[in-house]
Predict the structure.
Amino acid sequence: MKISIACDHGAFEMKEAVKAHLTAQGHEVTDFGCHSLASCDYPDMIAPAAKAVANGECEKGIVLCTTGIGASIAANKVKGVRCALLHETWSAKMTRLHNDTNVMALGAGVVGKNLALEIVDTWLGTEFSGDERHQRRIDKMMALEG
């Protein structure tokens, strides 16, 4: 699977761990930065990563910052993106089953590395249920974009 990934300086180390984990599993990862611990503004990296999912360049996206909140807000500003902020595996599973999310956000200061990797694996490994009621709700959400 082709996956976009992006972070700010507060999540750089976790992004690198997630990227290595995904690459070891055979995924193709496109890294939109940041590329160091130097202070930066997360929208500068998150937006291009989210746009890569919205335009079909990547199948899924993973965005990170210290809390995951800013990254998730920035990603959700991109038309066509449904980003969920995840801190545990049950929500990772449910957001794929019910919401068909195409981007996930993690907070590097909220979850540890091992849990983050488990969340990533759960999210990537869960397919959308395809249930009509869930698709109807997704269609209504996406219509809000205007």
